[in-house]
Amino acid sequence: MNKLTYIPLLLLMTMGSGCTKDNFDNTDFLNTGTAPASEGINFNIKDDNSGLVTITPNSAGATAYDIYFGDATTEPVRILPGQNTTHIYKEGTYPVKVIASGITGQKTETTKQLAVTFRAPESLTITANANLHDLTVSAAALYATGGYKVYFGDAANEVPVLIAEGAHVTHTYAKAGKYQVKVEALSGGAAITTATKEVTIYNALTLPMTFEQPDVSYAWGDFGGSVTSVIPNPYPGGINGSATVGKIIKTKDQTWAGNYISMSSPIDFTNNKKFKVKVYSWRPGLRVLLQLERSGDNTFMENMEAVTTKANAWEELTFDFSGKIMDNSKKLQNILFFLDNGTQGDGSQNFTILFDDIVLTN
Q1: Which residues pair with 137 in a beta bridge?
Q2: Would 321 disulfide with which of 12, 198, 210, 325, CB 3.0-4.6 Å?
Q3: Which residues contact residue 19 at a Cβ distance below 8 angstroms, ignoring those fewer than 6 apart?
Q4: What does the DSSP assignment read for 20-65?
Q5: 105-138 tens-digit pLDDT
Q6: What pLDDT, on the 0 to 100 scale, is given for residue 242?
């Protein structure tokens, strides 16, 4: 009995003596580890003057990176290996610092200079629209992230107006004349692109219309095949010795061909309702229709017709609106002329007139 009891006990003792205990508390490797290798820093600078820079660090043995942007931003950004970060810079040079941390807690610090340079704006265009003495200006260009400085050219030591992309500014000139508008497109840095545009500022177009005022725009429009111009008077004499006149030619196009001009404000019919116009025609019997319309809405209109009685001579035609226009409620502002309305022209002198001195009288 004693022998049988001894053998299992000896076996158990033998098996127990063959086991070892794992030790997970040994951190000696932390004392022998090394810091991350000196890292490379890659900059990808967007070439659109936005100042956007992508920063990508790379270092063997790093488990995290702290990136200091080198500008007024004081707090770093932490990223993991394989990641990057972006930052917006102004034009300039910046010491970008990256601190790489390894698994042992040891760190490696690297600083690299970042140079951000903005390109000069390109394809600068100026849009200028005048309404009498008011001029509205806008500008567009590529890479003009700093906006636009606008100079209107009517003052010494002028202080420019700064506008953003897509914005506009309106300026009022003290008097009519020609002016050089200058626009500087700003890159957001040192680079600037400059363009100029000549503009003409006119005084108001009012009655009587004489074609003799250089500071007034006599810009007639045409439709349906009418051709209108302002020319030196080829036949001074008789009732019209003025230097400049208007000329209308009706070509072989539409039977309703005509021209038009818009006065600076609606015509005042309070005291006067008759138009008188000096006309030079190459044949008697040419029907001249004078039509008045509201600007932008020709459903408000009135017209009267007169007929030439002379050939190769100046005469005065009268268009009496006394029976049609009672007040100013229709706000009639546009003046139109039709030659032989309803008849096709041929571009010859038979369908041509000279006209001058459009007067509203009683």
Answers
A1: 128, 169
A2: 325
A3: none
A4: --------THHHH--PPPPPEEEEEE-TTSS-EEEEEEE-TTEEEE
A5: 999 999 999 999 999 999 999 999 999 999 999 9
A6: 98
Residue type, 213: Q
Residues 65 and 77 sit within 8 Å (Cβ to Cβ): no
The predicted-structure confidence for 131-177, as pLDDT tens digits, reads as follows 999 999 999 999 999 999 999 999 999 999 999 999 999 999 999 99
What are the distances in angstroms from CA 291 to CA 253, 274, 325?
Answer: 20, 12, 12
> What confidence category does residue 37 fall into, taking pLDDT thresholds of 50, 70 and 90?
confident
pTM above 0.90, yes or no: no
CA distances from 283 to 278, 311, 314, 343, 350 (A): 15, 4, 11, 15, 6
- Which of 36-45, 159-168, 259-268, 332-341 has the lowest average pLDDT? 36-45
Residue 72 CA, distance from chain mean position: 33
Burial of 274-296, coded b for 16+ CB within 10 Å and e otherwise, reads ebbbbbbbbeeebebbbbbbeee
Secondary structure of residue 285 in the 3-state scheme: coil
Q: How many CA atoms lie within 13 A of 84 on its CB side?
A: 14
Q: How far, in Å, CA of 32 to CA of 102, rounded? A: 13
Q: Are strands 122-131 and 313-320 parallel, antiparallel or unpaired?
A: unpaired
Percent of the chain exceeding pLDDT 90 equals 89
Rounded Cα–Cα distance for residues 161 and 181 (Å): 12
**Which domains, and CATH codes, for the chain?**
36-116 (2.60.40.10), 122-201 (2.60.40.10), 221-361 (2.60.120.260)
259 burial (CB, 10 Å; 0-12 / 13-18 / 19+) is buried
